[in-house]
Write a structure and sequence with these properties.
About 4% of the residues have low confidence. This protein is an alpha+beta fold. It is 54% helix and 17% strand. The longest helix has 41 residues.
Length: 403
């Protein structure tokens, strides 16, 4: 009896008890489905996170002032003179409310020539003109400020003025340009929720000459750690120094641990799948004792009988794995929709969600997909070993006498 005939017979025996087989396959599929859905969301978050930080670049170091004391021009100059430093971008940031729009915004004072480096590439304008270093109250505003959050309608246009209340003071700016949608940012304020104004003008009207944030670009990715250490030694406790690469590494480690925990929890469903497969295989063997005896009497070897029932278990695992794969993709998309309704609304922009926990698209993780399918096959194969062995050891004479 060749392998094709054995597989055909195994499939025929499974389809004779369709409901029982389908329920067992579903038990296997659930485990695969949950693993794929959870891992695809974790992978989607990771890809979105890395994409945001790629705008800043792996050589970026963020130096933030601590306490109430801001970084001075002397500090900026001393940092720029450190070995391995390529670019230094001083900024001043304040949070406030845009009056009349009920929108929170971050006012960022930055030199126009350095805005390109801050945004990680070209200044992507939706309309209007780029920011210029002029001593007048002009502003380049983010997408979410110019558009209503509940729709795609534009509420602020180029040439209009906006008033931003910061503490007890109100700043009025003339809008010269509107940025296109950028998406979320995890370290710096999101460009979509920011108002960029000339740095020198910001310092003059605020009456404060210091900087709250200084972006430092190292000349090479290999010297980032050395440059960061030198900045820490130079500024001491007055500044918090964070490298983009360290944040990425920390986030990656945390996400991997969370992903492993979630997948481990989801994998417990394979215990139920294994017990279900063991049950159906034992019942199948007991129901077919006389049939097994007849097959052995006609010349089927013990090995072929063993293989027959092992193949049945593997078929359950294979079909369950493939079904779980499809269901996992569907569930991951459904979870995206659920998260968008419960965690945060969709941004009116052309990009993904505005909320950092929903601003991603699920991405299928090949590693965990393979793990899920292998687990389904392994679980059903292991659960089928004893029933298959028991079937192969049946005596033809005793089997034919079995009632």
């Amino acid at each position: 009896m060749n392998i094709y005939d054995v597989v055909k017979l195994a499939w025929k025996q499974l389809t004779q008890r369709r409901l029982r087989t389908i329920l067992t396959i579903l038990a296997v599929a659930v485990g695969v489905m949950v693993i794929i859905a959870l891992s695809s969301h974790a992978r989607g978050i990771y890809v979105s996170f890395i994409a945001n930080f790629e705008r800043l670049g792996p050589t970026t170091i963020i130096v933030s002032s601590t306490g109430t004391r801001l970084l001075s021009d002397v500090d900026v100059y001393r940092v720029s003179e450190l070995p391995g430093v390529s670019i230094v971008i001083p900024m001043r940031t304040l949070s406030g409310n845009v009056e009349g729009l009920n929108v929170r915004a971050t006012v960022v004072g930055v030199r126009a020539s350095e805005l390109k480096e801050l945004l990680g590439g070209d200044v992507n304008l939706l309309k209007g003109n780029p920011l210029t270093d002029t001593p007048i109250p002009i502003a380049l505003i983010g997408y979410n400020i110019a558009h209503d959050q509940s729709s795609s309608s534009e509420v602020v246009d180029v040439g209009q003025t906006i008033a931003v209340r910061v503490g007890t003071r109100t700043y009025i700016f003339s809008v010269v340009g509107i940025l296109n949608y950028y998406g979320s940012s995890f370290l710096l304020s999101s460009p979509d929720d920011s108002i960029y104004i000339p740095l020198d003008y910001f310092r003059r009207v605020s009456g404060v000459q210091g900087y709250s944030v200084v972006i430092v670009k190292a000349s090479d990715v290999n010297v980032v750690s050395d440059v960061a250490d030198n900045i820490r030694m130079l500024l001491g406790a007055r500044a918090r120094v964070t490298t983009v690469q360290s944040v990425v590494n920390t986030f990656t480690n945390i996400l991997n641990q969370m992903n492993l925990l979630l997948v481990s929890i989801a994998s417990t469903s394979f215990i139920a799948a294994g017990l279900g497969t063991f049950n159906i295989m034992m019942v199948s063997v007991l129901e077919r004792v006389r049939e097994i005896g007849l097959l052995k009497a006609l010349g089927m070897s013990d090995t072929t009988v063993l293989l027959l029932y092992l193949i049945q278990g593997l078929l359950i695992g294979l079909i369950g794995g493939l079904s779980g794969f499809g269901l996992g993709i569907v569930l991951s998309q459904a979870l995206t929709h659920i998260f968008s309704l419960t965690i945060g609304p969709r941004s009116p922009g052309p990009g993904p969600q505005a909320n950092p926990f929903t601003s991603y698209t699920p991405v299928l993780d090949p590693q965990y997909t393979l793990i899920a399918v292998v687990l389904s096959l392994t679980t059903t194969a292991v659960a089928s070993i004893y029933p298959s062995w028991r079937a192969s050891k049946l005596s033809p004479v005793e089997a034919l006498r079995y009632e």
